[in-house]
Amino acid sequence: xxxxxxxxxxxxxxxxxxxxxxxxxxxxxxICWPWDIxxxxxxxxxxxxTLYDLGRVPLGIRTGLSATVLQNGWGMAIAGNSTRYRxxxxxxxxxxxxxxxxxxxxRFLYIDQTMWRGAECTSQMLARSAFTSRNGIVxxxxxxxxxxxxxxxxxxxxWVADWIAADATRPWPPHP
Length: 176
Hints:
Layout: H1 4-16, E1 25-31, H2 45-63, H3 65-71, E2 75-85, E3 94-104, E4 109-117, E5 120-133, E6 136-138, H4 140-146, H5 158-168
Antiparallel strand pairs: 1-3, 2-5, 3-4, 4-5, 5-6
Helix pairs in contact: 1-2
Protein name: Acyl-CoA thioesterase FadM
Pfam families: 4HBT_2 (PF13279)
Organism: Gemmobacter aquatilis
């Protein structure tokens, strides 16, 4: 089941927290509960992706992105991601999640998210998010401008640009 209660807690905390700039980092702390683990007694890889929602939603609230999207009747959807799993997270361990926007191109906003146990990174996800409307994808520059921000993206980090280029070579639809 989706962690709606945890999401509600994060939304309330984000509404009370200071505002962030669009490229600033949102940080939150989470616990790996027994219902988050898999048969190997560690944080389930699918649940990790769900927990990353608990960082992106508050980031959107604190930056004002969510309010702009709602005011304009737009939606947001994850349009792809790449995740690295490096260290185990087991039941009852606390992790610190860091979520930040690293830039955008003509179609997507790119978000870098990491989970940390102390000074050790346990996982990292790069997500691309699309803004949607009844007419299709809304260019991120239009969304950023509606926020009252400079619509020009900072240069994307090389590893993000390389991921975009590599993903563009992947066939769609996939071969049967």
